[in-house]
Amino acid sequence: MRDGGSAAVAIGTDRETEAPVVSGKNYIYAIVEGGEPLIYEALGLEGKDVYTITEARLAAVVSGLSSAKIRPERANLRAHQAVLKQLMAVTTPLPMAFGTVAASPEAIHKILIRNRRVFEEQLARVADKVEMGLRVTWDVPNIFEYFVNTHTELRLARDRLMGSRHEFTQEEKIELGRMFDRLLNEDRENHTARVERVLGSLCSEFKANPCRNEQEVINLACLVKRDSQEAFSTGVFAAAQLFDNHFSFDYSGPWAPHNFVEIDLEQ
Predict the structure, then answer these.
(1) Sequence ranges of the chain with CATH classification 3.30.70.260
(2) How many helices (DSSP H) and strands (DSSP E) are in the chain?
(3) 183-202 tens-digit pLDDT
(4) The pTM is what?
(5) Domain 130-260 belongs to what architecture?
């Protein structure tokens, strides 16, 4: 038994242990290489069994579905991630976007056939790899004041506009805001390049995602070989040594390679 009591059962030739292919709608969690099928008992959405539908060298990881709509509720998101976590223990899957549904098992076979080339290319891209996330934030109480103190250009502009007054006009606020945004983005690009130089030999690919707030410096997805996770951790600490105490480093993973799967699904 693993994680919450879900059992992974290898399917053999005995009819009693074959995957219970469910007619009607099927929810698709991921695409994996074909091979010995698996059942994850009661792990999927609505507590359904999760199993594989195979077509040649590919397999879709699915479960039956009775709901008319799949909402991004906590229980559904948790079930989706639980399936991916189980798959990550044995392979690197191509995770499908939350809410991907096929009308029938026959429709899934068609999806596997029509998208065969792109699935195989993407599986080769992520084979034996995992996704690690790296977030770096400015650990300062006020990001604008920090930039004023560390960027002479911004400080002089603020002092020049302020003069002897205590209030800025709306136009002056907009001008300062534009300068701040430009310096913020320039610093983010420079800091990201510094980190990527340190981690470059440890990662197969990077993807820089948009920062979610002003305090965030770097939001980086890293594709890392499974057996290089410890080296990646060491590399993150080495990168952090290049920055002062105004920066906070936090990494996470391993995850399914969401940021490195590029599929425009043809159904």
Answers:
(1) 130-260
(2) 7, 11
(3) 999 999 999 999 999 999 99
(4) 0.84
(5) 2-Layer Sandwich (3.30)
